[in-house]
Amino acid sequence: MEEIIIKVKGKEYKVRVEEKGGKVKVYCGNDVYEIDSKSEIEPLFADIIKEEENEKGQIAVKAPLPGVIFSVNAKAGDKVKKGAVLVKLMAMKMENDVAAAKDCIVREIKVKKNDTVNRGDTLAILE
User: Fold this and answer.
1) CA–CA gap between residue 15 and residue 27 (Å, rounded)
2) How confident is the model over 70-88, as pLDDT tens digits?
3) What's the predicted TM-score (pTM) here?
4) How far apart are CA 23 and CA 2, in angstroms?
5) pLDDT at position 70, please?
6) What is the number of other CB atoms lying within 10 angstroms of the CB of residue 69?
7) What are the extents of the domains in the chain?
8) Are 59 and 52 in contact (CB under 8 A)?
9) Could you give the 3-state DSSP secondary structure of residue 55?
10) Sequence-ordered list of residues with C-beta below 8 angstroms from that of 3, at least 6 positions apart, any chain
11) C-alpha distances out from residue 81 to 46, 67, 96, Å
């Protein structure tokens, strides 16, 4: 189970999230919400978290939102595990981790510290 903080209308909420068998349970206080992750969550964020695979099997990791590159934590040739943070993006006064979606090799990092990026800009190429 993963614990995260979400902000809604300026108020922060600590929630716990558990994924099991294609379902996501979100625990907030005494309330539990069960979501079919495939049908309800993915379409909402599909354009934000989209990774595009080209004909060579390489994956372009895209910026989920506009911001400034706070740090670059990987370099070309690195073998990284699923969840490894490739880039930290500063947006809305918060650090946002951009992580590898699967075990892979970093082929190219397209950004450097302090670069300004827009939503959808390519940050890295993975294979």
Assistant:
1) 6
2) 999 999 999 999 889 999 9
3) 0.59
4) 14
5) 95
6) 20
7) 1-49, 50-127
8) yes
9) coil
10) 14, 15, 16, 17
11) 22, 25, 18
Amino acid at 78: D
- Residues 18-73: tens digit of each pLDDT: 877 667 788 888 888 887 655 554 455 544 444 555 556 788 898 888 899 999 99
Amino acid at 65: L
Tokens of 65: 């939102």
What's the residue count for the chain? 127
Closest CA to 106 of 88, 70, 81: 81
> What is the Cα–Cα distance from 109 to 26, expressed in whole angstroms?
34
Q: How much is the CA Rg of the chain, to the nearest whole Å?
A: 16
Ordered strands of the 59-62 beta sheet: 51-53, 59-62, 122-126, 104-109, 79-80
The answer to whether domain 50-127 has CATH 3.30.160.620 is no
pLDDT at 47: 47
